[in-house]
Protein backbone atom coordinates (compact mmCIF):
# COMPACT_ATOMS: atom_id res chain seq x y z
CA UNK A 1 0.00 0.00 0.00
CA UNK A 2 1.31 3.44 -0.94
CA UNK A 3 1.78 6.07 1.77
CA UNK A 4 1.60 9.88 1.83
CA UNK A 5 5.37 10.09 1.27
CA UNK A 6 4.61 8.52 -2.10
CA UNK A 7 1.95 11.15 -2.77
CA UNK A 8 4.37 14.00 -2.02
CA UNK A 9 7.19 12.47 -4.08
CA UNK A 10 4.82 11.84 -7.00
CA UNK A 11 3.52 15.40 -6.99
CA UNK A 12 7.06 16.81 -6.82
CA UNK A 13 8.08 14.69 -9.80
CA UNK A 14 4.97 15.62 -11.79
CA UNK A 15 5.64 19.27 -10.99
CA UNK A 16 9.01 18.96 -12.77
CA UNK A 17 11.28 18.82 -9.73
CA UNK A 18 14.21 16.51 -10.52
CA UNK A 19 16.27 17.06 -7.36
CA UNK A 20 15.55 17.41 -3.66
CA UNK A 21 18.34 18.51 -1.30
CA UNK A 22 18.20 17.72 2.38
CA UNK A 23 18.80 15.71 5.50
CA UNK A 24 16.40 12.91 6.55
CA UNK A 25 14.82 12.39 9.93
CA UNK A 26 12.42 9.89 11.37
CA UNK A 27 9.47 12.20 10.73
CA UNK A 28 10.28 12.57 7.01
CA UNK A 29 11.45 9.04 6.16
CA UNK A 30 8.24 8.39 4.21
CA UNK A 31 9.26 11.13 1.76
CA UNK A 32 12.64 9.51 1.19
CA UNK A 33 10.99 6.16 0.69
CA UNK A 34 8.68 7.71 -1.88
CA UNK A 35 11.57 9.34 -3.75
CA UNK A 36 13.49 6.05 -3.76
CA UNK A 37 10.66 4.47 -5.78
CA UNK A 38 10.90 7.19 -8.46
CA UNK A 39 14.60 7.67 -9.10
CA UNK A 40 14.03 7.73 -12.85
CA UNK A 41 12.26 11.09 -12.36
CA UNK A 42 13.41 12.54 -9.05
CA UNK A 43 16.54 12.07 -6.90
CA UNK A 44 17.57 13.07 -3.41
CA UNK A 45 20.94 14.73 -2.71
CA UNK A 46 22.01 14.03 0.87
CA UNK A 47 23.61 17.12 2.43
CA UNK A 48 25.71 17.28 5.61
CA UNK A 49 23.87 20.30 7.04
CA UNK A 50 20.32 21.60 6.61
CA UNK A 51 21.53 25.16 6.01
CA UNK A 52 23.46 23.89 3.03
CA UNK A 53 20.39 22.06 1.70
CA UNK A 54 18.69 25.42 1.30
CA UNK A 55 21.75 26.94 -0.40
CA UNK A 56 22.01 24.00 -2.82
CA UNK A 57 18.29 24.29 -3.62
CA UNK A 58 18.80 28.03 -4.14
CA UNK A 59 21.49 27.42 -6.77
CA UNK A 60 19.28 24.82 -8.49
CA UNK A 61 16.47 27.38 -8.66
CA UNK A 62 18.69 30.13 -10.06
CA UNK A 63 19.94 27.90 -12.87
CA UNK A 64 16.62 26.27 -13.79
CA UNK A 65 13.95 28.83 -12.87
CA UNK A 66 12.17 25.99 -11.05
CA UNK A 67 11.55 26.05 -7.29
CA UNK A 68 14.46 24.52 -5.44
CA UNK A 69 13.14 21.90 -3.03
CA UNK A 70 14.82 21.07 0.27
CA UNK A 71 13.67 18.78 3.07
CA UNK A 72 14.39 18.83 6.79
CA UNK A 73 13.07 17.08 9.84
CA UNK A 74 11.31 18.67 12.81
CA UNK A 75 13.16 20.80 15.35
CA UNK A 76 16.94 20.96 14.92
CA UNK A 77 16.63 20.33 11.20
CA UNK A 78 13.98 23.00 10.71
CA UNK A 79 15.74 25.68 12.71
CA UNK A 80 18.77 25.60 10.37
CA UNK A 81 16.81 26.52 7.23
CA UNK A 82 16.26 30.28 7.80
CA UNK A 83 19.70 31.37 6.53
CA UNK A 84 18.91 29.89 3.12
CA UNK A 85 15.27 30.95 3.26
CA UNK A 86 16.18 34.59 3.92
CA UNK A 87 18.71 34.50 1.08
CA UNK A 88 15.98 33.25 -1.26
CA UNK A 89 13.36 35.66 0.10
CA UNK A 90 15.50 38.76 -0.36
CA UNK A 91 16.83 37.61 -3.75
CA UNK A 92 13.37 36.57 -5.06
CA UNK A 93 14.37 32.94 -5.61
CA UNK A 94 11.59 30.29 -5.73
CA UNK A 95 12.06 27.60 -3.09
CA UNK A 96 9.94 25.02 -1.29
CA UNK A 97 10.96 23.70 2.08
CA UNK A 98 9.33 20.42 3.11
CA UNK A 99 9.49 20.41 6.88
CA UNK A 100 8.74 17.51 9.20
CA UNK A 101 6.50 18.05 12.20
CA UNK A 102 5.24 16.28 15.31
CA UNK A 103 2.05 14.26 14.92
CA UNK A 104 -1.05 16.47 14.90
CA UNK A 105 -2.27 15.18 18.25
CA UNK A 106 1.06 16.10 19.84
CA UNK A 107 1.12 19.76 18.77
CA UNK A 108 -0.14 21.03 22.17
CA UNK A 109 3.05 19.50 23.61
CA UNK A 110 5.46 21.33 21.31
CA UNK A 111 6.34 24.14 23.77
CA UNK A 112 9.68 23.76 25.52
CA UNK A 113 10.26 20.49 23.67
CA UNK A 114 7.95 18.50 25.96
CA UNK A 115 7.39 16.38 22.88
CA UNK A 116 10.93 15.78 21.68
CA UNK A 117 12.29 18.47 19.32
CA UNK A 118 9.02 20.39 19.21
CA UNK A 119 8.66 24.17 18.83
CA UNK A 120 6.33 26.58 17.02
CA UNK A 121 7.59 25.94 13.49
CA UNK A 122 4.71 27.68 11.70
CA UNK A 123 5.37 31.07 13.31
CA UNK A 124 9.09 30.52 12.85
CA UNK A 125 8.81 30.05 9.07
CA UNK A 126 6.23 32.79 8.61
CA UNK A 127 8.95 35.24 9.63
CA UNK A 128 11.45 34.16 6.95
CA UNK A 129 9.36 32.98 4.00
CA UNK A 130 6.89 34.27 1.48
CA UNK A 131 4.26 32.00 3.03
CA UNK A 132 4.13 28.95 5.33
CA UNK A 133 1.45 26.32 5.94
CA UNK A 134 0.88 23.54 8.46
CA UNK A 135 -0.86 20.68 6.66
CA UNK A 136 -4.07 19.95 8.65
CA UNK A 137 -5.15 16.74 6.95
CA UNK A 138 -4.37 14.21 4.23
CA UNK A 139 -7.18 15.58 2.08
CA UNK A 140 -5.73 19.11 2.18
CA UNK A 141 -2.19 18.08 1.23
CA UNK A 142 -2.47 17.95 -2.62
CA UNK A 143 -4.00 21.44 -2.77
CA UNK A 144 -1.32 22.81 -0.45
CA UNK A 145 1.44 21.34 -2.65
CA UNK A 146 -0.11 23.00 -5.73
CA UNK A 147 -0.41 26.23 -3.76
CA UNK A 148 3.23 26.02 -2.65
CA UNK A 149 4.44 25.87 -6.26
CA UNK A 150 2.10 28.65 -7.36
CA UNK A 151 3.10 31.01 -4.54
CA UNK A 152 6.83 30.22 -4.88
CA UNK A 153 6.85 31.00 -8.63
CA UNK A 154 4.35 33.87 -8.77
CA UNK A 155 5.70 37.43 -8.95
CA UNK A 156 7.54 38.22 -6.76
CA UNK A 157 9.06 34.69 -6.37
CA UNK A 158 10.34 33.47 -3.02
CA UNK A 159 10.60 30.58 -0.55
CA UNK A 160 7.61 28.84 1.03
CA UNK A 161 7.44 26.26 3.81
CA UNK A 162 5.17 23.22 3.79
CA UNK A 163 5.08 21.70 7.29
CA UNK A 164 3.82 18.10 7.24
CA UNK A 165 3.02 16.27 10.50
CA UNK A 166 4.55 12.85 11.08
CA UNK A 167 1.24 10.98 11.24
CA UNK A 168 0.15 12.46 7.91
CA UNK A 169 3.45 11.55 6.23
CA UNK A 170 3.21 7.93 7.41
CA UNK A 171 -0.50 7.46 6.65
CA UNK A 172 -1.70 5.21 3.85
CA UNK A 173 -2.52 6.85 0.53
CA UNK A 174 -5.71 5.55 -1.01
CA UNK A 175 -5.07 6.51 -4.63
CA UNK A 176 -8.71 5.92 -5.56
CA UNK A 177 -9.98 8.33 -2.91
CA UNK A 178 -7.29 11.01 -3.15
CA UNK A 179 -6.40 11.65 -6.77
CA UNK A 180 -3.68 14.17 -7.58
CA UNK A 181 -3.21 16.74 -10.29
CA UNK A 182 -0.58 19.44 -10.78
CA UNK A 183 -0.61 22.90 -12.37
CA UNK A 184 1.97 22.88 -15.16
CA UNK A 185 1.95 26.70 -15.31
CA UNK A 186 3.76 26.91 -11.97
CA UNK A 187 6.64 24.64 -12.97
CA UNK A 188 9.05 27.60 -13.19
CA UNK A 189 9.22 31.36 -12.75
CA UNK A 190 7.56 33.56 -13.57
CA UNK A 191 4.20 31.90 -12.96
CA UNK A 192 2.48 34.72 -14.90
CA UNK A 193 3.86 37.52 -17.05
CA UNK A 194 2.36 41.00 -17.32
CA UNK A 195 3.32 44.27 -18.95
CA UNK A 196 2.86 48.00 -18.41
CA UNK A 197 0.18 50.09 -20.18
CA UNK A 198 0.98 51.29 -23.68
CA UNK A 199 0.91 54.92 -22.60
CA UNK A 200 3.60 54.34 -19.98
CA UNK A 201 5.74 52.42 -22.49
CA UNK A 202 5.47 55.32 -24.95
CA UNK A 203 6.35 57.85 -22.24
CA UNK A 204 9.44 55.86 -21.28
CA UNK A 205 10.49 55.49 -24.94
CA UNK A 206 10.25 59.25 -25.42
CA UNK A 207 12.41 59.80 -22.35
CA UNK A 208 15.03 57.46 -23.80
CA UNK A 209 15.04 59.30 -27.14
CA UNK A 210 15.64 62.63 -25.40
CA UNK A 211 18.47 61.37 -23.20
CA UNK A 212 22.03 62.34 -24.09
CA UNK A 213 23.72 60.00 -21.60
CA UNK A 214 21.38 57.07 -20.86
CA UNK A 215 22.38 54.20 -18.58
CA UNK A 216 20.78 50.80 -18.04
CA UNK A 217 21.24 49.13 -14.63
CA UNK A 218 20.38 45.41 -14.74
CA UNK A 219 19.55 43.56 -11.55
CA UNK A 220 18.75 39.98 -10.62
CA UNK A 221 15.21 40.48 -11.90
CA UNK A 222 16.59 40.16 -15.44
CA UNK A 223 17.61 36.57 -14.73
CA UNK A 224 14.46 35.93 -12.71
CA UNK A 225 12.48 36.79 -15.83
CA UNK A 226 14.85 34.77 -18.07
CA UNK A 227 15.29 37.98 -20.04
CA UNK A 228 19.06 38.25 -20.60
CA UNK A 229 18.82 37.74 -24.39
CA UNK A 230 16.05 40.32 -24.73
CA UNK A 231 17.87 42.80 -22.47
CA UNK A 232 21.08 42.33 -24.48
CA UNK A 233 19.22 43.01 -27.74
CA UNK A 234 17.69 46.11 -26.17
CA UNK A 235 21.07 47.28 -24.87
CA UNK A 236 22.62 46.78 -28.32
CA UNK A 237 20.09 49.23 -29.77
CA UNK A 238 19.92 51.60 -26.81
CA UNK A 239 23.20 53.39 -27.38
CA UNK A 240 24.27 53.99 -23.79
CA UNK A 241 26.04 52.71 -20.70
CA UNK A 242 25.10 49.30 -19.24
CA UNK A 243 26.08 48.15 -15.75
CA UNK A 244 24.69 45.40 -13.53
CA UNK A 245 24.27 44.52 -9.91
CA UNK A 246 26.19 41.49 -8.63
CA UNK A 247 23.06 39.34 -9.03
CA UNK A 248 22.47 40.83 -12.48
CA UNK A 249 25.94 39.97 -13.80
CA UNK A 250 25.47 38.28 -17.17
CA UNK A 251 22.40 40.32 -18.11
CA UNK A 252 24.54 41.48 -21.03
CA UNK A 253 27.94 40.20 -22.18
CA UNK A 254 30.62 42.28 -20.50
CA UNK A 255 32.64 42.09 -23.70
CA UNK A 256 30.33 44.70 -25.29
CA UNK A 257 31.85 48.22 -25.59
CA UNK A 258 28.96 49.77 -23.67
CA UNK A 259 29.23 47.34 -20.71
CA UNK A 260 31.17 48.78 -17.77
CA UNK A 261 30.79 45.90 -15.30
CA UNK A 262 29.24 45.62 -11.86
CA UNK A 263 27.88 48.65 -10.04
CA UNK A 264 28.75 47.99 -6.39
CA UNK A 265 31.40 49.15 -3.91
CA UNK A 266 32.98 45.73 -4.64
CA UNK A 267 32.58 46.16 -8.38
CA UNK A 268 33.94 48.06 -11.34
CA UNK A 269 35.61 51.43 -10.88
CA UNK A 270 34.39 52.43 -14.35
CA UNK A 271 30.79 51.57 -13.48
CA UNK A 272 30.97 53.61 -10.27
CA UNK A 273 32.40 56.63 -12.07
CA UNK A 274 30.27 56.55 -15.21
CA UNK A 275 26.86 56.02 -13.63
CA UNK A 276 27.13 59.42 -11.93
CA UNK A 277 27.39 61.10 -15.34
CA UNK A 278 24.20 59.61 -16.79
CA UNK A 279 21.22 61.91 -17.33
CA UNK A 280 18.76 58.99 -17.50
CA UNK A 281 19.02 55.77 -15.48
CA UNK A 282 16.83 52.79 -16.37
CA UNK A 283 16.63 50.46 -13.34
CA UNK A 284 15.79 47.11 -14.91
CA UNK A 285 14.86 44.33 -12.45
CA UNK A 286 16.86 46.07 -9.74
CA UNK A 287 15.50 47.03 -6.33
CA UNK A 288 18.18 49.77 -6.02
CA UNK A 289 19.51 48.26 -2.83
CA UNK A 290 22.13 49.85 -0.60
CA UNK A 291 25.04 48.41 -2.59
CA UNK A 292 23.76 48.85 -6.16
CA UNK A 293 22.52 52.31 -5.19
CA UNK A 294 25.98 53.08 -3.78
CA UNK A 295 24.61 53.75 -0.30
CA UNK A 296 21.59 55.38 -1.95
CA UNK A 297 23.62 58.16 -3.48
CA UNK A 298 21.92 57.00 -6.69
CA UNK A 299 19.96 58.13 -8.49
CA UNK A 300 21.24 61.68 -8.15
CA UNK A 301 18.65 64.47 -7.86
CA UNK A 302 19.38 65.50 -11.46
CA UNK A 303 18.88 62.08 -13.04
CA UNK A 304 15.64 61.10 -14.75
CA UNK A 305 14.68 57.50 -14.01
CA UNK A 306 12.68 54.61 -15.41
CA UNK A 307 11.98 51.62 -13.17
CA UNK A 308 11.09 48.17 -14.54
CA UNK A 309 9.92 45.65 -11.95
CA UNK A 310 7.16 43.08 -11.42
CA UNK A 311 6.71 44.14 -7.78
CA UNK A 312 4.57 47.29 -7.39
CA UNK A 313 6.16 48.01 -4.02
CA UNK A 314 9.59 48.53 -5.63
CA UNK A 315 8.44 51.56 -7.66
CA UNK A 316 9.02 54.52 -5.36
CA UNK A 317 10.65 52.72 -2.43
CA UNK A 318 13.76 54.94 -2.32
CA UNK A 319 12.89 57.56 -4.94
CA UNK A 320 9.95 58.65 -7.08
CA UNK A 321 10.73 57.43 -10.62
CA UNK A 322 10.04 59.65 -13.58
CA UNK A 323 8.30 56.74 -15.33
CA UNK A 324 7.47 53.50 -13.44
CA UNK A 325 6.87 50.44 -15.61
CA UNK A 326 5.12 47.70 -13.64
CA UNK A 327 5.38 44.20 -15.05
CA UNK A 328 7.60 41.37 -16.17
CA UNK A 329 11.09 42.46 -17.24
CA UNK A 330 11.09 40.46 -20.47
CA UNK A 331 7.66 41.67 -21.55
CA UNK A 332 8.40 45.32 -20.78
CA UNK A 333 11.86 45.38 -22.39
CA UNK A 334 10.40 43.77 -25.52
CA UNK A 335 7.59 46.34 -25.63
CA UNK A 336 9.98 49.22 -24.95
CA UNK A 337 12.34 48.04 -27.68
CA UNK A 338 9.43 47.86 -30.12
CA UNK A 339 8.21 51.33 -29.11
CA UNK A 340 11.61 52.91 -29.77
CA UNK A 341 11.18 51.91 -33.42
CA UNK A 342 14.85 51.68 -34.33
CA UNK A 343 18.41 51.60 -33.11
CA UNK A 344 19.86 54.52 -31.17
CA UNK A 345 23.35 52.99 -31.09
CA UNK A 346 25.94 55.37 -32.49
CA UNK A 347 23.76 58.46 -32.06
CA UNK A 348 25.54 59.62 -28.89
CA UNK A 349 29.17 59.75 -29.96
CA UNK A 350 30.29 61.92 -27.05
CA UNK A 351 28.81 59.51 -24.48
CA UNK A 352 30.26 56.49 -26.29
CA UNK A 353 33.68 58.14 -26.25
CA UNK A 354 33.44 58.93 -22.56
CA UNK A 355 32.47 55.34 -21.73
CA UNK A 356 35.45 54.03 -23.72
CA UNK A 357 37.81 56.50 -22.02
CA UNK A 358 36.83 55.61 -18.46
CA UNK A 359 36.76 51.88 -19.18
CA UNK A 360 40.27 52.06 -20.66
CA UNK A 361 41.54 53.84 -17.54
CA UNK A 362 40.00 51.15 -15.36
CA UNK A 363 41.51 48.37 -17.46
CA UNK A 364 44.98 49.89 -17.14
CA UNK A 365 44.68 49.87 -13.36
CA UNK A 366 43.47 46.27 -13.38
CA UNK A 367 46.36 45.21 -15.64
CA UNK A 368 48.85 46.57 -13.09
CA UNK A 369 47.22 44.50 -10.34
CA UNK A 370 47.19 41.36 -12.48
CA UNK A 371 50.89 41.74 -13.29
CA UNK A 372 51.89 41.77 -9.63
CA UNK A 373 54.66 39.32 -8.64
CA UNK A 374 54.15 39.93 -4.93
CA UNK A 375 54.35 37.23 -2.29
CA UNK A 376 51.88 36.65 -0.67
CA UNK A 377 49.98 36.55 -3.95
CA UNK A 378 47.79 39.37 -5.24
CA UNK A 379 44.19 38.10 -5.75
CA UNK A 380 43.84 39.73 -9.21
CA UNK A 381 46.71 37.52 -10.38
CA UNK A 382 44.71 34.45 -9.31
CA UNK A 383 41.49 35.70 -10.92
CA UNK A 384 43.20 36.41 -14.24
CA UNK A 385 44.43 32.81 -14.38
CA UNK A 386 40.92 31.52 -13.60
CA UNK A 387 39.49 33.74 -16.35
CA UNK A 388 41.81 32.16 -18.93
CA UNK A 389 40.40 28.71 -18.17
CA UNK A 390 36.68 29.47 -18.00
CA UNK A 391 34.48 28.31 -20.85
CA UNK A 392 31.26 30.10 -21.73
CA UNK A 393 29.15 27.35 -20.19
CA UNK A 394 31.05 27.11 -16.91
CA UNK A 395 29.26 28.29 -13.76
CA UNK A 396 30.98 30.51 -11.18
CA UNK A 397 29.61 30.44 -7.64
CA UNK A 398 30.70 33.29 -5.41
CA UNK A 399 30.86 33.38 -1.67
CA UNK A 400 30.26 36.58 0.24
CA UNK A 401 32.71 39.34 1.18
CA UNK A 402 35.81 40.11 -0.91
CA UNK A 403 35.44 37.03 -3.14
CA UNK A 404 32.37 38.64 -4.71
CA UNK A 405 34.42 41.69 -5.66
CA UNK A 406 37.31 39.76 -7.17
CA UNK A 407 34.85 37.80 -9.33
CA UNK A 408 32.91 40.92 -10.30
CA UNK A 409 35.99 42.80 -11.46
CA UNK A 410 38.17 40.10 -13.02
CA UNK A 411 35.90 37.34 -14.41
CA UNK A 412 33.89 38.78 -17.31
CA UNK A 413 30.49 37.48 -18.36
CA UNK A 414 31.02 36.38 -21.95
CA UNK A 415 27.42 35.69 -22.95
CA UNK A 416 23.93 36.64 -21.77
CA UNK A 417 22.55 34.40 -19.06
CA UNK A 418 23.06 33.40 -15.45
CA UNK A 419 26.58 31.95 -15.40
CA UNK A 420 27.47 33.72 -12.15
CA UNK A 421 25.70 32.92 -8.88
CA UNK A 422 26.00 35.38 -6.02
CA UNK A 423 24.40 35.03 -2.59
CA UNK A 424 23.34 38.65 -2.28
CA UNK A 425 19.90 38.28 -0.70
CA UNK A 426 21.59 38.11 2.69
CA UNK A 427 25.25 38.26 1.70
CA UNK A 428 26.07 35.58 4.24
CA UNK A 429 29.31 33.61 4.37
CA UNK A 430 29.31 29.92 3.50
CA UNK A 431 27.23 29.83 0.30
CA UNK A 432 29.74 28.75 -2.34
CA UNK A 433 30.42 25.09 -1.49
CA UNK A 434 26.76 24.04 -1.07
CA UNK A 435 25.75 26.33 -3.93
CA UNK A 436 28.23 24.47 -6.12
CA UNK A 437 26.63 21.15 -5.11
CA UNK A 438 23.27 22.40 -6.34
CA UNK A 439 24.80 23.82 -9.51
CA UNK A 440 26.78 20.66 -10.31
CA UNK A 441 23.77 18.42 -9.72
CA UNK A 442 21.75 20.65 -12.04
CA UNK A 443 24.43 21.04 -14.73
CA UNK A 444 26.50 17.83 -14.52
CA UNK A 445 28.21 18.52 -17.86
CA UNK A 446 29.44 21.98 -16.83
CA UNK A 447 32.51 22.87 -14.82
CA UNK A 448 31.60 24.65 -11.58
CA UNK A 449 34.13 27.07 -10.09
CA UNK A 450 33.78 28.53 -6.62
CA UNK A 451 35.74 31.40 -5.11
CA UNK A 452 35.73 31.95 -1.34
CA UNK A 453 37.91 33.48 1.30
CA UNK A 454 39.17 31.29 4.10
CA UNK A 455 36.58 32.70 6.49
CA UNK A 456 33.66 31.80 4.20
CA UNK A 457 35.14 28.44 3.22
CA UNK A 458 35.43 27.44 6.87
CA UNK A 459 31.65 27.58 7.27
CA UNK A 460 30.91 24.59 5.05
CA UNK A 461 34.12 22.62 4.70
CA UNK A 462 32.33 19.44 5.75
CA UNK A 463 30.11 19.70 2.67
CA UNK A 464 33.17 18.96 0.52
CA UNK A 465 32.44 15.33 1.39
CA UNK A 466 29.19 15.67 -0.57
CA UNK A 467 31.07 16.97 -3.62
CA UNK A 468 33.39 13.97 -3.31
CA UNK A 469 30.57 11.49 -2.78
CA UNK A 470 28.90 12.56 -6.03
CA UNK A 471 32.25 13.12 -7.81
CA UNK A 472 31.16 16.55 -8.94
CA UNK A 473 33.21 18.59 -11.41
CA UNK A 474 33.88 21.47 -9.00
CA UNK A 475 37.04 23.56 -8.67
CA UNK A 476 36.94 25.28 -5.27
CA UNK A 477 39.41 28.18 -5.13
CA UNK A 478 40.18 29.35 -1.59
CA UNK A 479 41.92 32.71 -1.41
CA UNK A 480 43.41 32.39 2.05
CA UNK A 481 44.71 35.47 3.83
CA UNK A 482 44.41 34.04 7.33
CA UNK A 483 42.01 36.85 8.17
CA UNK A 484 38.46 38.07 7.94
CA UNK A 485 39.76 40.58 5.41
CA UNK A 486 36.78 42.94 5.34
CA UNK A 487 36.60 43.08 9.14
CA UNK A 488 40.35 43.58 9.49
CA UNK A 489 40.34 46.60 7.17
CA UNK A 490 37.18 48.04 8.72
CA UNK A 491 38.65 47.84 12.20
CA UNK A 492 41.96 49.25 11.03
CA UNK A 493 40.52 52.13 9.01
CA UNK A 494 37.81 53.29 11.36
CA UNK A 495 39.14 52.24 14.77
CA UNK A 496 42.91 52.04 14.15
CA UNK A 497 42.83 48.74 15.99
CA UNK A 498 42.47 45.21 14.63
CA UNK A 499 40.55 43.46 17.37
CA UNK A 500 38.99 40.20 16.23
CA UNK A 501 39.66 39.41 12.58
CA UNK A 502 42.48 36.87 12.86
CA UNK A 503 41.63 33.33 11.77
CA UNK A 504 45.07 31.90 12.40
CA UNK A 505 48.26 32.39 14.39
CA UNK A 506 51.83 31.36 13.81
CA UNK A 507 51.18 28.13 15.69
CA UNK A 508 47.75 27.35 14.14
CA UNK A 509 47.40 27.66 10.37
CA UNK A 510 44.46 25.62 8.99
CA UNK A 511 45.29 23.82 5.75
CA UNK A 512 42.29 23.75 3.43
CA UNK A 513 43.98 21.81 0.63
CA UNK A 514 45.04 19.14 3.13
CA UNK A 515 41.55 18.99 4.63
CA UNK A 516 40.10 18.58 1.14
CA UNK A 517 42.44 15.67 0.44
CA UNK A 518 41.31 14.06 3.67
CA UNK A 519 37.70 14.29 2.50
CA UNK A 520 38.41 12.66 -0.85
CA UNK A 521 39.10 15.67 -3.09
CA UNK A 522 42.26 16.71 -4.89
CA UNK A 523 43.96 19.33 -2.73
CA UNK A 524 46.56 21.76 -4.08
CA UNK A 525 48.36 24.49 -2.14
CA UNK A 526 49.92 27.52 -3.86
CA UNK A 527 52.00 30.27 -2.31
CA UNK A 528 54.01 31.56 -5.30
CA UNK A 529 52.63 33.47 -8.32
CA UNK A 530 54.46 31.30 -10.85
CA UNK A 531 52.73 28.17 -9.52
CA UNK A 532 49.15 29.39 -9.97
CA UNK A 533 48.78 28.37 -13.62
CA UNK A 534 49.99 24.79 -13.10
CA UNK A 535 47.78 24.35 -10.03
CA UNK A 536 44.68 25.51 -11.90
CA UNK A 537 45.53 23.37 -14.92
CA UNK A 538 45.71 20.34 -12.64
CA UNK A 539 42.43 21.19 -10.92
CA UNK A 540 40.55 21.90 -14.17
CA UNK A 541 41.82 18.66 -15.70
CA UNK A 542 40.82 16.58 -12.66
CA UNK A 543 37.79 14.35 -13.15
CA UNK A 544 36.16 15.20 -9.85
CA UNK A 545 36.15 17.92 -7.18
CA UNK A 546 39.25 19.79 -6.10
CA UNK A 547 40.39 22.56 -3.78
CA UNK A 548 43.07 25.03 -4.81
CA UNK A 549 44.22 26.96 -1.76
CA UNK A 550 46.13 30.15 -2.61
CA UNK A 551 47.95 32.14 0.03
CA UNK A 552 47.13 35.79 -0.69
CA UNK A 553 48.08 39.23 0.58
CA UNK A 554 46.06 40.02 3.71
CA UNK A 555 46.02 43.71 2.75
CA UNK A 556 44.40 43.17 -0.64
CA UNK A 557 40.86 44.49 -1.11
CA UNK A 558 38.59 44.94 -4.13
CA UNK A 559 36.73 47.83 -2.44
CA UNK A 560 37.85 51.05 -4.11
CA UNK A 561 36.99 53.28 -1.12
CA UNK A 562 39.08 51.04 1.16
CA UNK A 563 42.00 51.23 -1.26
CA UNK A 564 41.75 55.01 -1.28
CA UNK A 565 41.65 55.30 2.49
CA UNK A 566 44.65 52.98 2.85
CA UNK A 567 46.65 55.18 0.46
CA UNK A 568 45.75 58.31 2.43
CA UNK A 569 47.94 57.16 5.29
CA UNK A 570 47.42 55.80 8.75
CA UNK A 571 47.53 59.18 10.53
CA UNK A 572 44.83 60.96 8.54
CA UNK A 573 41.65 61.41 10.64
CA UNK A 574 38.82 59.14 9.58
CA UNK A 575 35.11 59.29 10.33
CA UNK A 576 33.57 56.69 12.56
CA UNK A 577 31.38 54.17 10.68
CA UNK A 578 28.21 55.88 11.86
CA UNK A 579 29.10 58.94 9.77
CA UNK A 580 30.20 56.98 6.69
CA UNK A 581 26.65 56.10 5.67
CA UNK A 582 24.35 59.09 5.52
CA UNK A 583 20.67 58.72 6.19
CA UNK A 584 18.90 57.85 2.95
CA UNK A 585 17.00 60.72 1.35
CA UNK A 586 13.83 59.94 -0.62
CA UNK A 587 14.16 61.66 -3.98
CA UNK A 588 11.96 62.78 -6.86
CA UNK A 589 13.45 62.07 -10.29
CA UNK A 590 12.93 64.85 -12.85
CA UNK A 591 12.11 64.58 -16.52
CA UNK A 592 14.52 65.60 -19.26
TrEMBL record:
PROSITE patterns cross-referenced by the UniProt entry: TPP_ENZYMES
Protein name: Thiamine pyrophosphate-binding protein
Segments forming domain Thiamine pyrophosphate enzyme central: 201-336
Domain Thiamine pyrophosphate enzyme N-terminal TPP-binding intervals: 4-121
SUPFAM superfamilies per the UniProt record, alphabetical: DHS-like NAD/FAD-binding domain, Thiamin diphosphate-binding fold (THDP-binding)
Every Thiamine pyrophosphate enzyme TPP-binding domain range: 404-550
Alphabetized Pfam families for the sequence: TPP_enzyme_C, TPP_enzyme_M, TPP_enzyme_N
Top-level taxon: Bacteria
Alphabetized UniProt keyword annotations: Thiamine pyrophosphate
Cofactor dependence: thiamine diphosphate
Similarity section: Belongs to the TPP enzyme family.
KW Phosphoprotein (keyword) present: no
Keyword Acetylation attached: no
PANTHER family: ACETOLACTATE SYNTHASE CATALYTIC SUBUNIT, MITOCHONDRIAL (PTHR18968:SF13), THIAMINE PYROPHOSPHATE ENZYMES (PTHR18968)
Amino acid sequence: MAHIGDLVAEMLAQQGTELVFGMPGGQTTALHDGISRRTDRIRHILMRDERNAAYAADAYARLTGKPGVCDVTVGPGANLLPAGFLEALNASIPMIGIVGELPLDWLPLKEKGIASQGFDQLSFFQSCSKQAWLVPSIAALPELIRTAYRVATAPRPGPVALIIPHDIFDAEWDEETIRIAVDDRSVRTPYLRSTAPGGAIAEAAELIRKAKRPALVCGGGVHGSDAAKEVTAFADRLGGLVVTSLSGKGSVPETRPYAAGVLNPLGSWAAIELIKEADLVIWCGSKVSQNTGMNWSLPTPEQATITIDCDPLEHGRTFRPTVPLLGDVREIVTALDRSLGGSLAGTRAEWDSRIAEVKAEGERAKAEEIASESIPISPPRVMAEIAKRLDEDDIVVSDASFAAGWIAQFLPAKKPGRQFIYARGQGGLGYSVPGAIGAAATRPDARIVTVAGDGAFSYTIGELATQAQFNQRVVNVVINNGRLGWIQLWQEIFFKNVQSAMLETQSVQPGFAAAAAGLGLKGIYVDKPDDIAAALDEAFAHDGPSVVEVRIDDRATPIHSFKRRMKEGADKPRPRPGTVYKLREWKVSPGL
